[in-house]
Amino acid sequence: MDIKNKVAENETVVNMTVSQKGHTLHHNGVFSPDGKWIVFDGRNDDTKIGETATIGMVNVETGEERIVYQTTNQTMYGPGVGAASFSPVRDRIVFIHGLPNADQEKPYDITRRTGVAVDLEKPMTPVFLDARDIAVPYTPGSLRGGTHSHCWSGDGNMLSFTYNDEMVDPQLRVVGVMVPHEKKIDVDVVVGNNHGEMYAAIVSDVVAEPILGTDQINKAFDECWIGRKGYLTSEGQHVPYAIAFQGNVLDEHGVTVTEIFIVDIDIEKITADTSAVGKVGERPKVPQGIRQRRLTYGADLSDRRHWLRSSHDGKYIYALAKDEKGNNQIVRCDVNTGELSFVTNNPFSITSPFNLCKESNKITFVAENNVFVYDMDRDENLRLTRNDLNDTRVIGIPSFSPDGEFVVYNQYERVGSEEYLQIKRAMISDKTSVLKP
């Protein structure tokens, strides 16, 4: 069916999908490099990755839906797939994949999943990216838990992820990376293991019990790559790869405060320290020479879950923080100085994670069940939708099209007594209503 015929009442909103199933968008990389396809997973409920069997995509121009990957032997316990993202440079999609041996006793879980890719020229053929090795001695370049929320670097060479170990301190979330490697990471062929195409390592230093008032963290999470090509230090040195992540510290009174941390990614140092894989009774360690630094002091980022975002030139990191009224607003942090300033001053609270456009001068988010675009150059909010609080829910994270002409987002559509999560497109046009912040 031609999506151009499915125009909403305000003439700017179009249904991209109509099939009676879930179409969940990930928080990043939903468009193919040429902008013609949008990738989604088959969830109709954000919490149901373990029960979800399909990764699909929809054509932006025709509305054609295709399944590009489907699990085998899928049950309510797994394996499950979800959270799919296109590479920025090739027709490859990465997504979370539960372990093939998932069952009632060992179902899909945060410590039992891995990163899998599928190439569009070879649909249905999984490529396991991070090796998983639970047989001692552990293989350098492998992990033994669950990687998730994968995010491509700007050049598509590497992936970041968050991770929970299955063997030691599974509740401690950390940030890791997959980097290119001259050969695959081969592990013993045992249940729970899989080979990997890339070299995986942890890059955030996390402790179970941080010392009060220090830079120690007990959780590293919801990261982003800094810039499309890294960033320049205050001394003018170019750092080609770096990650900003959120880290929970404890202040002098034992109160959890979320700050921004940065870690520079050096492939040679990561692959050189083979002992970082760890031994029995240890979590994987940060490779020698890889050090995180705390960027902010007193940022106290919002407890609304969101992922950090970087400007394309690597100068700024964007996040959510609460204003004096307790509303979630966008804040901007200088990568070198840690100086933090509010970008938005909305009379309402942002209720979703957010994304930046390619040029980094517009931000899209959800508030009051509507999709907004904030134009930083004009200091204007554009409301792209006309929903009220009684309409079906807008959920998840809106994303800009590569050309910046429209935003895609998730909203439930009611069919009889059922609701199905669909992908919608909202044009950014002169007809869009303007709300001064």
UniProtKB/TrEMBL annotation:
Native organism: Sphingobacterium micropteri
Top-rank taxon: Bacteria
Ranges of residues in domain Dipeptidylpeptidase IV N-terminal: 327-405
Name the record gives this protein: DUF3748 domain-containing protein
Pfam family, one: PD40
InterPro entries, A to Z: 6-blade_b-propeller_TolB-like, DUF3748, Peptidase_S9B_N, WD40
Family to which this protein belongs: Belongs to the TolB family.
